[in-house]
Description:
Elements (H helix, E strand, L loop, with lengths): L1 E6 L2 E6 H13 L4 E7 L6 E3 L9 E5 L5 E10 L4 H20 L3 E12 L3
Parallel strand pairs: 6-7
Antiparallel strand pairs: 1-2, 3-4, 3-6, 5-6
Helix pairs in contact: 1-2
Amino acid sequence: xxxxxxxxxxxxxxxxxxxxxxxxxxxxxxxxxxxxxxxxxxxxxxxxxxxxxxxxxxxxxxxxxxxxxxxxxxxxxxxxxxxxxxxxxxxxxxxxxxxxxxxxxxxxxxxxxxxxxxx
Length: 119
């Protein structure tokens, strides 16, 4: 899926994978987020994603009015207030993605897939 921005010079097309990667890195900057997660189909366990595969824990879709919906699958740090971390993540990602793309973020859904002790 792609998002379109139209102006007097033509059309800008932004791929959902580019937005997913940007949103993933924006989320990792938030306090309390250890990383993005993916669920293993073989054993059903959440696995921490690293490096360039970070966008696999983020799903970006566009609705009919070209607004962005983002789903995060995250692993959170042990001992932090989950609600506070998620509120911070939503606020930070919404601001950064809207600033980066000039498209409106309609919804951000967060699925906490695991908790991990950080050193």
